């Protein structure tokens, strides 16, 4: 049986490790936002504690169905006040650790969903087991 590799017509995350993520083969070493509609930009936060409502307002401007929030090495939930811009635009938010968010984004984007991933990449030296 001949197998064909999955081919996405949307930006995909094809690798990650401590302190980095590869989107369409391009390595990023800081927090990043990527959407299935082609938007991609640096997300100015190194730690969860650096985030605030303005970070989530950036995500609301993407006008997608759902945002997959990768909160770093562990699952951390943003305060409700930060989510106001998303709630006002009726955009869903799923929160999980960053590596799970990478995998989830790929699945949803591959299904043709209007999805964005906001991926918090903590500095590599903070990533001890």
Helix and strand topology:
Layout: E1 13-17, E2 20-23, E3 26-28, E4 32-35, E5 40-42, H1 53-60, E6 66-70, H2 84-88, E7 92-96, H3 98-110, E8 115-119
Parallel strand pairs: 6-7, 6-8
Antiparallel strand pairs: 1-2, 2-3, 4-5, 4-8
Could you please describe the fold and organization of this structure?
The structure is a single chain. The chain is an alpha/beta fold. The protein has one domain (27-123): MTH938-like (Hypothetical Protein Mth938, Chain: A). It contains three helices and eight strands. It has helices at residues 53-60, 84-88, 98-110; strands at 13-17, 20-23, 26-28, 32-35, 40-42, 66-70, 92-96, 115-119. The strands form two sheets. It has a five-stranded mixed sheet, with helices on one face. Strands 1-2-3 form a three-stranded antiparallel sheet, covered by helices on one side. The longest helix has 13 residues, at 98-110. The chain starts with 12 loop residues before the first strand and ends in a 10-residue tail after the last strand.
The CATH architecture would be: 3-Layer(aba) Sandwich
Low-confidence stretches: none
Number of E-state strands: 8
Report the principal-axis shape. Answer: globular
State the order of secondary-structure elements, H for helix, E for strand.
EEEEEHEHEHE
Number of helices: 3
Q: Characterize the quaternary organization of these chains.
A: single chain
Percentage of residues in strands:
25-35%
Rg for CA atoms: 14 Å
CATH C-level category: Alpha Beta
Counting structural domains, the number is 1
Protein name: Mth938-like domain-containing protein
Organism: Curvibacter microcysteis
InterPro entries: MTH938-like_sf, NDUFAF3/AAMDC
Pfam family, one: DUF498
């Amino acid at each position: 049986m001949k197998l064909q590799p999955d081919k996405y017509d949307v930006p995909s995350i094809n690798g990650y490790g401590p302190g980095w993520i590869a989107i369409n083969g391009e390595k990023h070493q800081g927090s990043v936002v990527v959407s299935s509609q082609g938007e991609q930009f640096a997300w100015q936060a190194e730690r969860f504690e650096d985030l605030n409502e303005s970070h989530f307002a950036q995500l609301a401007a993407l006008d997608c169905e759902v945002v997959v929030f990768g909160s770093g090495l562990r699952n951390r939930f943003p305060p409700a006040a930060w989510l106001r811009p998303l709630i006002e635009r009726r955009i869903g938010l799923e929160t999980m650790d960053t590596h799970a968010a990478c995998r989830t984004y790929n699945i949803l984007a591959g299904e043709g969903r209007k999805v964005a991933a906001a991926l918090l990449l903590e500095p590599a030296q903070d990533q001890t087991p």
